[in-house]
Design the sequence.
C-alpha cells in the first residue's frame, strides 16, 4: 500500500487544505506516514505570507531531497507554489509537482503519471470544493471555508496574487458542509476566509446571504455548540454581524480583528481605508452587543516609512483596546506587492527593536487577562491530551489554552474552574 507524507505551514485555511488533501489521497487507497523516508509521495502545503515562511519551505525541500527514497514523488502545493511557479523547478530540479492553492485537487494526476512534471498555478474558481471527497470523520473543531481570495489589496499582502480575487462559496454548499461536519463529530464550527466577514453570495432567486445568515442557520444544528470565524476586516464588520453577538449564544465572545498599525499615515500606505475612530467605534458596538467579548489583533511593525511616532501610535492603540491575544510581525517585503517597491524601508535592527517592545506589552496584556480569569468558571472545549498524557488541553470561549488533570470520561465540553494562570495558558479543574 502506498504512503503519503504531508507537512502544512501557515494559516488555518492551509490546515483545512491539508486535511482535504489527506482525505483525497486516502480515497485513492493511500495511507499517511510521518516518516519521510517511507513515503511514496511527499507534499509540502505552503504559506507565502512572509519571506521567512517561503524560506522555510525551500529549506525543507532541500532536506527532503536527501531523506526521501529515490522513487518517491515530491512537490509543493499552496501559496509558495503560486508565488514561485515554474521557478520552483529551477531551484529544486527533482520536484515532481507545483500546484497552487486552488489546484491541489489535481494531485491524482501526478499519481497516474508519475513520470510527468505537473505545474498548475492558475487562479481558478471554487472547483476544488466540488471535486474533493468529504471527510468521513470531522475533528471537534471543523474549519469551513466560505470564501477565498481578497479584494482589499493591502500593499504588503501577497494573498490577492496567491489566492486571487474574492470569491464566496454558495450558501447551500457551505451549509451542506457544516451539517456534514456536525453529523461526523464536530462540536465547534469555525468559518474561514481571507476576508471572512466580507462573505456575500447571491443565489439564482436574487437572495443575498451574508456571514450573519450562515451563523444563524448553523446555530440551529443541535450538535454544534460553538461558532466562530476568522479572519475579519474592520470595514466588513457590519451591523447585522455585530447583532449576532448579541442574540446568538453559540457565537463565541471572541473576535480577531486585525488593525495592523495604529498610525493613520501607515494605514494609508498599507491601503487599509479605515480610521482609528471607525475601528474603535466597531469595538464599542461589539462590547455593547456582548459585554464580555474579547478582541485579538494582528500587527505589522517596521512598514516602509514608519517613524518613531507612527510606532508610538501603534503602542497607544494596543494600550487603548487591551487586546487579549495578538500576533505581531516585522514587515517582510513580498514579491507582487506595492510596499516592496516603496522608499524608506526600515532597517532590520529598528524593526527588531520595535517588535520586541510591542511583543513585550502584548504579552503583558495577555498575562493580565489570563490572571483575571482565576476563580472564574469558563466553558471549554476539549482538544485532547498533552504530550505527556498526564493532562488534557481544553480551549476556552476566549481561545485560551486551559490545562487540567487527565481523567477518564472527561466531557468534550466542560465547565472549568480556573485555578492558576500565566501568559501562555490557564490551569483549572472540571466542575461539570
Sequence:
Amino acid at each position: 500500500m502506498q504512503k503519503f507524507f504531508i507537512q502544512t505551514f501557515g494559516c488555518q485555511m492551509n490546515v483545512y487544505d491539508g486535511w482535504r488533501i489527506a482525505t483525497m489521497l486516502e480515497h485513492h487507497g493511500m495511507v499517511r506516514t510521518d516518516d519521510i523516508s517511507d513515503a511514496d509521495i511527499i507534499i509540502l502545503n505552503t504559506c507565502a505570507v512572509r519571506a521567512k515562511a517561503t524560506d522555510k519551505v525551500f529549506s525543507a525541500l532541500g532536506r527532503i531531497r536527501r531523506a526521501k527514497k529515490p522513487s518517491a514523488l515530491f512537490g509543493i502545493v499552496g501559496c509558495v507554489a503560486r508565488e514561485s511557479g515554474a521557478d520552483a523547478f529551477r531551484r529544486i530540479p527533482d520536484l515532481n509537482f507545483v500546484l497552487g492553492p486552488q489546484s491541489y485537487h489535481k494531485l491524482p494526476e501526478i499519481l497516474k503519471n508519475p513520470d510527468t512534471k505537473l505545474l498548475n498555478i492558475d487562479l481558478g474558481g471554487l472547483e476544488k470544493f466540488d471535486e474533493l471527497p468529504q471527510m468521513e470523520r470531522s475533528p471537534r473543531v471543523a474549519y469551513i471555508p466560505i470564501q477565498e481570495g481578497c479584494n482589499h489589496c493591502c500593499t504588503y499582502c501577497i494573498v490577492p496574487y496567491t489566492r486571487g480575487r474574492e470569491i464566496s462559496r454558495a450558501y447551500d454548499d457551505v451549509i451542506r458542509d457544516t451539517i456534514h461536519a456536525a453529523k461526523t463529530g464536530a462540536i465547534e464550527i469555525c468559518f474561514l476566509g481571507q476576508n471572512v466577514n466580507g462573505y456575500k453570495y447571491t443565489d439564482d432567486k436574487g437572495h443575498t446571504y451574508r456571514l450573519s445568515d450562515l451563523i444563524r442557520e448553523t446555530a440551529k444544528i443541535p450538535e454544534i455548540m460553538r461558532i466562530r470565524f476568522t479572519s475579519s476586516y474592520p470595514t466588513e464588520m457590519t451591523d447585522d454581524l455585530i447583532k449576532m453577538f448579541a442574540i446568538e449564544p453559540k457565537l463565541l465572545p471572541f473576535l480577531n480583528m486585525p488593525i495592523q498599525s495604529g498610525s493613520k499615515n501607515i494605514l494609508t500606505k498599507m491601503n487599509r481605508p479605515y480610521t482609528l475612530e471607525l475601528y474603535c467605534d466597531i469595538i464599542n458596538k461589539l462590547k455593547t452587543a456582548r459585554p464580555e467579548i474579547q478582541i485579538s489583533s494582528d500587527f505589522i511593525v517596521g512598514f516602509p516609512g514608519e517613524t518613531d511616532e507612527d510606532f508610538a501610535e501603534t503602542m497607544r492603540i494596543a494600550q487603548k483596546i487591551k487586546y487579549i491575544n495578538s500576533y505581531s510581525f516585522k514587515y517582510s517585503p513580498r514579491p507582487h506587492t506595492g510596499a516592496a517597491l516603496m522608499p524608506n524601508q526600515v532597517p532590520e535592527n529598528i524593526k527588531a527593536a520595535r517588535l520586541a517592545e510591542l511583543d513585550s506589552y502584548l504579552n503583558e496584556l495577555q498575562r493580565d487577562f489570563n490572571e483575571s480569569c482565576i476563580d472564574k468558571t469558563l466553558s471549554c472545549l476539549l482538544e485532547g491530551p498533552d504530550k505527556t498524557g498526564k493532562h488534557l488541553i481544553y480551549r476556552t470561549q476566549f481561545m485560551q489554552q486551559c490545562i487540567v488533570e487527565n481523567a477518564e470520561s472527561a466531557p468534550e465540553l466542560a465547565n472549568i474552574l480556573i485555578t492558576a494562570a500565566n501568559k501562555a495558558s490557564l490551569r483549572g479543574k472540571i466542575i461539570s
About this structure: The mean pLDDT is 94. The radius of gyration is 22 Å. The first helix runs from residue 12 to 27.
